[in-house]
Amino acid sequence: MTLPPLSDPERALSLAYAPRGSRGALHALWLLDERLGHIVMEPNRPIAAIKLAWWREALERLDTAPPPPEPLLAALSAACATSAADGRTLARVAAGWDSLIDDGVDGEGDADRLLRHAGLRGQALFVSAAMMLGEPCPHCAAEGAIWAAATVPTSLTTTTTRSAALAALPVTGKRWPRKLRALGVLAVLGRARLRDPATPAGAPSHIARALWLGFSGR
Q: Best label site of 31, 65, 168, 203, fewest CB within 10 Å?
């Protein structure tokens, strides 16, 4: 089964640091996040919400039933079958994207909404990725939240909101073991995006920092 390439150069770079046997699963996971992110950008929000609900339910069903004839779901089902990842956690990625277009929570400000999104999407992605990579990762949830806050499309947030989110999110500074350096690369790139939002994804200075982490683990 051949999946389409990733459109984000930073996610594509991270695959180079994943163990060879885990790259297909990680590719499918990042592709899921990209696809759900494209849905959120649709101008018709009710239609986008319906599509995200479909993905959320389809991902949850991976734990109890064979996947429908959809290549990406089939790839994710196979990844779950060969690791400790599960559909229930993957479904939180869809819930995280939906949190950017839902009615929100009473009293919730823009920064609160971004943090809710980061807590759902980022934690689910990084925790699922660690399971697919086969290495326990106590700090993956926090690092995933930072990366998720950094990678929300600029049309859905503001620099002020991102800065507030960065101040609220913990920075662990932990060393990344070799199996998890694909996640470490993304974590350091996400932190760079939050601190320097005017610099585009794939900027040479950010990539250089990511390459050093891939080599050293820090």
A: 65
